[in-house]
Amino acid sequence: MRTRFTEMFGIRYPIVQGGMQWVGRAELAAAVSNAGALGIITALTQPTPEDLLREIARCRDMTDQPFAVNLTILPTLRAVSHAHYAQAIIDSGVKIVETAGRNPEPYMASFKAAGVKIIHKCTSVRHSLKAQAIGCDAVSVDGFECAGHPGEDDIPGLVLLPRAAEQLKIPIIASGGFGDGRGLVAALALGADGINMGTRFMATVEAPIHQNIKDSIVAASERDTALLMRRLRNTARFFRNRVAQEAEAVERMKGADLTIQDLAPFVSGQRGRLVYEQGDVDAGVWSAGMVVGLIHDVPTCAELVSRIVREAREIISERLMKTMA
Ligand code: NAD
């Protein structure tokens, strides 16, 4: 498959793995890149920038294909020096970065000087235009369906993607709600140059998380996610487990007086980490998108990517072509 995105980034298929906290480790990124898609290591999953350098080296041992590093710039409970992680990415020699959350402008000049291409992930047309204006090479446009932070506008992909395509000149990756060949074809039809999948790649053999979590994703329906932190203007979508429901109750009780201190015991990433490591679905909150309703198995990354490409080809050449005949 060839799109502006595959050409620009030198990958076989227009499929990107989402930058997921605690999940985006070398094993998964390498498996995705070996499957012909773009794997992503999540910078902040590594405790220090030095650990990130080691993780990138580990990934290089497992793949000779291009992979990227995600740098999420959002509020955190532990103090994080995003600048030091950005420098580690540059020092590692990785040539693709996915920035997410706040404006990546402070890091743009040094990324550009080092020949690093920047995909900025954002949740609105105005932020995508800003990303284009400051020199990002591509944007990953995240609809309301997505896991993690959907922004505050609540515009689903069906409207957000064509709106972005109307306005932008740079390649667009469609994110939020994608998990199969139908989604890939839809994204291309809406004007995107590829898809980003986070939750779908969690339910793969190589995802470095406990089997119980993969099984929970397979068992879940599209109604099994919950939005938290709306009142803090840092909305995030999580799997609707017991902890998420407790946090929802706190939000209702506190109303307009809610602060991050009220929610920190529930939403802490350190608790979320235990979910993935120990396989206790209720150990903390963990990110999941509405696409859980479309995930019915746990394939290898290679099986998943080739299935999506095959499905997309069949839909385009059989179903859609017949519609036009
Ligand atoms: P963490 O433990 O530092 O924080 C837990 C949650 O609380 C995060 O969602 C964070 O954004 C939020 N938070 C922290 N301080 C806040 C404040 N002062 N005001 C409002 N909200 C606040 O986070 P973590 O789980 O270790 O994750 C590290 C980074 O990765 C964070 O920036 C987090 O938002 C981000 N993240 C993104 C996604 C995603 O979008 N897919 C998923 C998980 C984490």
Question: What does the secondary structure layout of this molecule look like, with pairings?
Answer:
Blueprint: H1 4-9, E1 15-17, H2 26-34, E2 39-42, H3 49-62, E3 67-73, H4 82-92, E4 96-101, H5 105-113, E5 117-122, H6 125-133, E6 138-142, H7 157-167, E7 172-175, H8 181-189, E8 194-197, H9 199-202, H10 211-219, E9 225-228, E10 236-239, H11 242-254, H12 260-267, H13 269-278, H14 301-324
Parallel strand pairs: 1-8, 2-3, 3-4, 4-5, 5-6, 6-7, 7-8
Antiparallel strand pairs: 9-10
Helix pairs in contact: 2-3, 3-4, 4-5, 8-14, 11-12
Bound molecules: nicotinamide-adenine-dinucleotide (NAD).
What does this structure look like?
The mean pLDDT is 97. This protein has helices at residues 4-9, 26-34, 49-62, 82-92, 105-113, 125-133, 157-167, 181-189, 199-202, 211-219, 242-254, 260-267, 269-278, 301-324, and strands spanning 15-17, 39-42, 67-73, 96-101, 117-122, 138-142, 172-175, 194-197, 225-228, 236-239. Strand 3, helix 4 and strand 4 form a beta-alpha-beta unit. It has two domains: 4-208 and 297-324, TIM Barrel; 225-287, no CATH class. The strands form two sheets. An eight-stranded parallel beta sheet has the order 1-8-7-6-5-4-3-2. Strands 9-10 form a two-stranded antiparallel sheet. It has 14 helices and ten strands. The longest helix has 24 residues, at 301-324. The chain is 45% helix and 14% strand. Bound molecules: nicotinamide-adenine-dinucleotide. Nicotinamide-adenine-dinucleotide binds next to helix 12 and helix 13.
